[in-house]
Design brief:
alpha+beta; 3 helices; about 150 residues; 6-stranded mixed sheet
Length: about 150
């Protein structure tokens, strides 16, 4: 049950990120849509180009965020029997979710730390089993369970 509850919280965080990115895309889309028939000075066209570049960057980031949301939603129904992308690891001090990075939050008086499977910390924890100790930053954590 902890797994579904924690992933649901992460999903809600991801939805906030997506909404913010959508607003940024819309903002830069408007800024890049200068009427080229009107008389503008060269600086207007330079600003238009910069706004279009930013729009494209935010659109790319938005697509990545939407893919992450799809991943999270699919994880609600899954359970993992080894530590891999999508695994929720409970340690003696916190929870670790592997697959997407979101700000740290509390769940059942423990911090939930979510990070990408590309993060260096993933290499420290990959392949570990229940009862094993793992180094995360300067802390030594004991794995209680994972799913």
């Amino acid at each position: 049950m902890k797994r579904a509850d924690i992933i649901t919280i992460i999903i809600e965080e991801q939805k906030v990120v997506i909404e913010s990115l959508k607003q940024s895309v819309d903002h830069y889309k408007i800024a890049s849509d200068v009427d080229e028939e009107s008389t503008h000075d060269p600086e207007d066209f330079s600003n238009q180009t910069q706004a279009k570049d930013m729009q494209l960057r935010f659109e790319k980031t938005l697509k990545e965020a939407e893919r992450s949301l799809t991943f999270l939603e699919s994880e609600l129904k899954l359970e993992h029997h080894k530590i891999e992308k999508g695994t929720l690891v409970e340690t003696d001090q916190n929870f670790l979710f592997i697959g997407i990075s979101v700000p740290v939050f509390k769940f059942e008086n423990k911090e939930v730390i979510a990070f990408s499977d590309h993060a260096p910390v993933f290499q420290n924890i990959k392949g570990k089993n229940k009862g094993d100790f793992v180094e995360v930053g300067s802390k030594s954590l004991q794995i209680i369970d994972f799913s």
